[in-house]
């Protein structure tokens, strides 16, 4: 099959790779049709990471079932599907209670099977394949992973109707977080450096936007909330920006407010000075959020699919660019230079 393999310099080489096989009776093989580029992918762009060299990566994808194992009953060949890429070892204490998003072997397992979006075929357990309604496109489905991350964070936050919410970052995750909060009846202000992303945020329903290049985000959030501070702040940037954005988030939160860490940290230790006395005396909660899994008896990815299918969130406008797999390096470059290109969610057709 055709696949994009990571190179030593962190870019991609599109070449021939071994097509996956169905290793067990409960597995499914699918033909990938659309894959996406997210912030996590971009943090690995053009970085020398020997552990990823010659590997297939990518974790936002939708496609068509081509083969199923003997015990598979939920999908059949020809079905259009979205593929969940959060997959633990299935045997640890956390997996046994459906908290597989924090499985110790999460990345070892998911990258061996379902988290291989930038290739023609992918195989995984049938429970990770969700049948798409006819009116939900492959492109829309490729955004379900993004919104599932956001939904998990919202569930952890306890967000309620009429809450005052601040979102730091207007990339795909930040926009998704804003849209879900709005769909739940909250008032939302969103902050970013990229004006085109903020313009889209307004179009998608944000009550207020802040360009942090010219405005003080903490002051703007305080003004938005009548001087009290936000009930919930979602940090959706992460990476190298976290030493700046996390302190901002804690200053935006009201007393007994919550700060949800959605943006990912880089590997290793990160030292971030915070105003700990104020955080403690105000009982501000810092809530880490990691991927997604289950909410009570419901699969969060299935919940997002249901929201899209019912028209409660419209994700189509977030797809700003499209590239074939052969141009994956160009696609990543456009996504990485979003300030110049206006890129939000870049889709790769395969």
UniProtKB/TrEMBL annotation:
It comes from Sphingomonas mucosissima. It comes from the Bacteria. It holds the Pfam family ADH_zinc_N. This is D-arabitol-phosphate dehydrogenase. Its cofactor is Zn(2+). Transmembrane segments: none annotated. PROSITE patterns: ADH_ZINC. GO terms for molecular function: oxidoreductase activity, acting on the CH-OH group of donors, NAD or NADP as acceptor; zinc ion binding. Its EC number is 1.1.1.301. InterPro entries: ADH-like_C (IPR013149), ADH-like_N (IPR013154), ADH_Zn_CS (IPR002328), ER (IPR020843), GroES-like_sf (IPR011032), NAD(P)-bd_dom_sf (IPR036291), Zn_alcohol_dh (IPR050129).
């Amino acid at each position: 099959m055709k696949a994009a393999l990571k190179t030593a310099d962190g870019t991609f080489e599109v070449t021939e790779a071994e097509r996956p096989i169905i290793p067990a009776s409960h597995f499914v093989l699918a033909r990938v049709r659309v894959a996406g580029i997210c912030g996590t992918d971009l943090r690995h762009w053009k970085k020398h990471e020997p552990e990823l060299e010659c590997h297939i990566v990518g974790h936002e994808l939708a496609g068509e079932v081509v083969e199923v194992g003997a015990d598979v009953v939920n999908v059949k060949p020809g079905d259009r599907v979205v593929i969940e890429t959060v997959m633990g070892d299935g045997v640890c204490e956390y997996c046994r209670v459906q908290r597989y998003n924090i499985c110790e072997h999460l990345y070892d397992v998911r990258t061996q099977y379902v988290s291989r979006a930038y290739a023609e075929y992918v195989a995984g357990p049938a429970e990770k394949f969700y049948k798409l309604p006819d009116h939900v496109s492959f492109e829309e489905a490729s955004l379900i992973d993004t919104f599932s991350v956001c939904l998990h964070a919202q569930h952890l936050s306890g967000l309620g109707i009429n809450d005052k919410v601040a979102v730091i970052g207007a990339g795909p995750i930040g926009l998704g977080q804003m849209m879900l909060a709005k769909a739940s009846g909250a008032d939302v202000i969103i902050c970013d450096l990229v004006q085109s992303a903020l313009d889209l945020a307004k179009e998608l329903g944000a009550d207020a936007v802040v360009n942090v290049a010219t405005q003080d985000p903490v002051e703007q959030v305080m003004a938005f909330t009548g001087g009290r501070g936000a009930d919930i702040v979602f940090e959706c940037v992460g990476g190298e920006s976290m030493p700046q954005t996390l302190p901002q988030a804690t200053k935006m939160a009201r007393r007994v407010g919550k700060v949800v860490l959605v943006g990912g940290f880089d590997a290793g230790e990160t030292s971030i000075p915070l105003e700990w006395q104020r955080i403690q005396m105000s009982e501000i909660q810092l809530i880490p959020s990691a991927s997604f899994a289950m909410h009570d008896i419901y699969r969060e990815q299935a919940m997002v699919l249901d929201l899209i299918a019912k028209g409660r969130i419209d994700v189509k406008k977030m797809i700003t660019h499209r590239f074939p797999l052969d141009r994956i390096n160009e696609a990543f470059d456009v996504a990485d230079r979003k300030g110049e290109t206006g890129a939000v969610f870049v889709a790769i057709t395969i």
